[in-house]
Each structure stands twice: as structure tokens, then as C-alpha cells.
Amino acid sequence: MMRIKTASNHRVRRELDKRAPKLVETSKKTLFLHGTKTSSVLNSVLTEFYHLKKGTAIKYSRKNENVKPFESGGETSLEFYSLKTDCSLFVYGSHSKKRPNNLVLGRTFDHHIYDLIEVGIENFKSMNSFSYDKKLAPRIGSKPFFAFIGEAFESVDELKHLKEVLLDLFRGEVVTNFNLAGVDRMYVCTALTSNKIYFTQFALRLKKSGTPVPRMELVEVGPSMDMVVRRHRNPDDGLRKVAMKSAPDSTKKKEKNVVKDPIEGKIGKIYIPEQKVGDVPFMDKSKGVKRERREAREAKPAQKKPKQQEEEVAE
């Protein structure tokens, strides 16, 4: 039998707890990997995506022959890197004659492959090809807007899947409050066909409008490219159910012995203590018996006593 290794001290146990799945997620990190062969276009895409994710990303520049996400047995090395770097997102680039400029975007749950989507890069333009004020460059920690233009993002499964992955990849850390000045960029995805989108980035310039709300102008800063969906793999239903489990509301008071059924609705359990009939004291003179005797006596006709009858005869 296989021996299960446990943490040897408290420090190792704390590190393992940090990497374990959590109901309230922390900020997700992204791992960038190169395949056996890559092109100059693909290297530029990986580099610029890494700069957009700087601070929450790790990039490996060496070639990885054993990483093959869509093939059986090719996920082992990828899951190992995910566990080693504690990254729940990954971007893998490869180039071949059959699939040129191939980019694989994926997510992991508990350091196992959750879902995958493969896109081809066409008409790529780097950030250096756009002329703009360098002060408008995105800052680390800023929050972006997202705009998905086209009905295909709601009707086509491949684009719906790509939309979810892109939102997870670029949204950054989830916050409740933020400064308006920190929202300085915007990603725009336009559905060109049922399997092709146009991806680009804009910088937001705030100008005076004469009102408390400033006027916003969009300045394209890149990178821009066309993404053609080639292959995608949805998560398993059982794994999706576990991964989508949300944390309970801490402010809501918990109801004991109450469950919710999709058909019958709210169901509760009532616990009745054991009835000890043998310990109940028995009363000799019960009120019920007295009442029955009184009613029986009133129902009989009135009879005179024998003594009174003899006195009447003597008279």
C-alpha cells in the first residue's frame, strides 16, 4: 500500500493549507509556459500577456516537451508546475505546421486540469506598434473594464467558454471598493464569426465634463489580435459542482434541523422526547368518575325512605 506523507511541522502545514482549495478564493496567479517550438509572434504574445499580468504571474522561458494539455498523459507535467508555483491559471504556447501560433488557455482546480480552450493567433499587433502617451500605460494593480460585443458570446458554446476564461485571466483580485482613478484600462472583445473574436486593449483618459463624473476617452494601446477557437474542453460535471461551491453567508443566522428541497421547499425536523407513560401518577378519585355517578343518580326517580312511609300509615 502507498504511504501517505503528512506535514512534519507547523510551517509546512500552514503552507499546505494555503495551497488547498478555499471557499473564499485569493487572487489567482498565472503560469506562462513555452512548448517544444514557438514562433516570434507567439513569443511576443506570451511576453505582453505576462507584462499585463505582472505581479500575479510566473513565466518559464525553457521549452517543455512533456507538456501536452489535450493529450492523455501530457497533463502530468502541467499539473506538477501548477502545484510547484501555486498557479490556478496557465497560458501555454506552441507552434506547428498543423496548428500555427497556437495558444492554450486553461484553469486548474486543486492543481488538476479543470478546463481548456485552444485558440490560434492572427493579425497580431504589439503594444510598441501603437503611438500614445506612455503615462496611459496600465499600472500594476489597476482594475480593467470588459466589453463583449456580439450575440455569439451568449449563444455559441465555444465563445461562452472563451469569455469565462478571459474574465478569469485578466480580472485580477476581486475587491469590494476601488478608486475611480484605478480603473484605467478596458478590454474589448468583438465576435467576428461563430469561432473568431477580435481582442484589443484601450486606455481610459479622464477629462473634465463640468459635472462630478468625469468624461472618459478611449485610447487604443494594444496588444490587438484575432483569436480563432480551435479546440475546447469543458469541465466534468462532478468537478464543476465541487469547484462552484460557494462560501456560506456569515451574517445569516443558521437554522438548525432545516433543509431545502427543490420540490417540497423548506423542510424542518421536530424532535419529541420519549413519552414515559409508566411514570405518570394514577389518581384514585378522578373527576370523570364522580361526574358519571352524579349524572346516574339524577337520572333515577325519587324514592321515599321506608321510615317516612310507616309514619304516613300510622297517621
UniProtKB/TrEMBL annotation:
Subcellular location: Nucleus, Nucleolus
Region (Disordered): 240-259, 281-315
Entry-linked InterPro entries: Brix, Rpf2
Molecular functions per Gene Ontology: rRNA binding
Keywords: Nucleus
Matching PROSITE patterns: BRIX (PS50833)
Sequence intervals crossing the membrane: none
Pfam families: Brix
Residue span, Brix domain: 28-238
GO CC terms of this entry: nucleolus
Basic and acidic residues biased stretches: 250-259, 282-301
Family classification: Belongs to the RPF2 family.
UniProt protein name: Ribosome production factor 2 homolog
Organism: Castilleja foliolosa
